[in-house]
């Protein structure tokens, strides 16, 4: 049992991608669901892998919180509608939506396969659109709410992931347009831009060895703080934006990136001199 902090006490939150890829650390979705529960919300944990979401639910209930699991493919409209319906049937409304589903696809517009391009936009953008499509009317009827879209620093800077960057850039534009379109319904819409955080998903695509260690060092050193970030750092930002403490904040992109977006690559190249590359 943990003491409820109360920032979102009594609110009902949906978190998509609430499971965590197996491996060390914690994903942003799982961490966000747990933080919202610790802050007093009842949480609908959504994932295409329900077993992973169940681990999140257990973590919440073991601390005395309330949560349910809904397995869903959020690229499908009827399944997104079913998620929202489950929340309303269980707790009467939806106050918070965290759109956390995402997957990077490496490659330039020349390199990336057309199917991978389409899939990247479906996973990173379509899921957000569909969840919002079905949540907004419920929030509007209830007098408002908070939507937090998990964007990326890739939305505003290049990194060789054309499809992912395009999808996240579109998510940012969608965030701003939704804030404009639904603000008078009491709905705030914001986005978070995680930087080079370390999560189980990151570890899952790395091969152990010198190259992985070098990559971890570069990710850590890329920020002004020179420290590693993780899913909890992002989740605490979610908790703030979901709460009434952020009642006058909407349409913004909040970087959680140790200052990566505050510096130029040229300056960082000088700062990183002396970091040895693997042989």
CATH class: Alpha Beta
Shape: globular
Strand proportion, as a percent range, falls in 5-15%
User: Whole-number average pLDDT?
Assistant: 90
Please, how many domains? 1
State the distance separating the first and last CA atoms.
Answer: 49 Å
- Specify the CATH architecture: 3-Layer(aba) Sandwich
Task: Report the sheet with the most strands, covering strand number, pairing sense and barrel closure.
Answer: 7 strands, parallel
Q: Give the helix tally.
A: 9
Query: Largest beta sheet: what is the strand line-up?
Result: 3-2-1-4-5-6-7
In short:
The protein contains nine helices and seven strands; from the N terminus they run βαβαβαβαβαβαααβα. The chain has 279 residues and is an alpha/beta fold. The chain has one domain (12-204, 228-263): Rossmann fold (3-Layer(aba) Sandwich).
Chain-wise SSE layout:
Blueprint: E1 12-16, H1 28-38, E2 42-47, H2 50-62, E3 66-71, H3 77-91, E4 96-99, H4 114-141, E5 145-150, H5 162-182, E6 187-194, H6 200-204, H7 210-221, H8 231-242, E7 253-256, H9 265-271
Parallel strand pairs: 1-2, 1-4, 2-3, 4-5, 5-6, 6-7
Helix pairs in contact: 1-2, 1-8, 3-4, 4-5
Please describe what this structure looks like.
The chain has 279 residues and is an alpha/beta fold. The chain has one domain (12-204, 228-263): NAD(P)-binding Rossmann-like Domain (Rossmann fold), CATH 3.40.50. It has nine helices and seven strands; from the N terminus they run βαβαβαβαβαβαααβα. A seven-stranded parallel β-sheet has the order 3-2-1-4-5-6-7, sandwiched between helices. The protein starts with 11 loop residues before the first strand and ends in an 8-residue tail after the last helix. The mean pLDDT is 90.
């Amino acid at each position: 049992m943990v003491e409820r902090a109360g920032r979102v006490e009594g609110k009902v939150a949906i978190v998509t991608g609430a499971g965590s890829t197996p491996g060390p650390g914690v994903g942003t979705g799982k961490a966000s669901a747990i933080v919202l529960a610790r802050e007093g919300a009842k949480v609908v944990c959504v994932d295409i892998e329900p077993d992973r979401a169940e681990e999140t639910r257990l973590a919440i209930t073991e601390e005395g919180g309330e949560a349910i699991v809904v397995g869903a493919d959020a690229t499908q409209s009827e399944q997104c509608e079913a998620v929202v319906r489950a929340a309303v049937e269980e707790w009467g409304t939806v106050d918070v939506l965290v759109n956390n589903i995402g997957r990077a696809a490496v490659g330039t517009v020349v390199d990336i396969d057309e199917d991978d391009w389409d899939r990247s936009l479906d996973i990173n953008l379509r899921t957000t659109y569909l969840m919002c499509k079905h949540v907004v009317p419920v929030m509007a009827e209830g007098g408002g709410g908070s939507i937090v879209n998990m964007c990326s620093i890739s939305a505003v800077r290049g990194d060789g992931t054309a499809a992912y960057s395009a999808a996240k850039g579109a998510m940012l534009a969608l965030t701003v347009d939704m804030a404009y379109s639904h603000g008078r319904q009491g709905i705030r819409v914001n986005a978070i831009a995680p930087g080079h955080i370390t999560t189980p998903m990151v570890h899952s695509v790395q091969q152990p060895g010198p190259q992985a260690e070098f990559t971890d060092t570069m990710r850590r050193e890329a920020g002004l703080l020179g420290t590693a970030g993780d899913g909890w750092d992002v989740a605490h930002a979610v908790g703030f934006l979901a709460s009434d403490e952020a009642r006058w904040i909407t349409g913004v992109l909040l970087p959680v990136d140790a200052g990566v977006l505050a510096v130029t690559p040229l300056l960082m190249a000088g700062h990183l001199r002396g970091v040895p590359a693997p042989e």
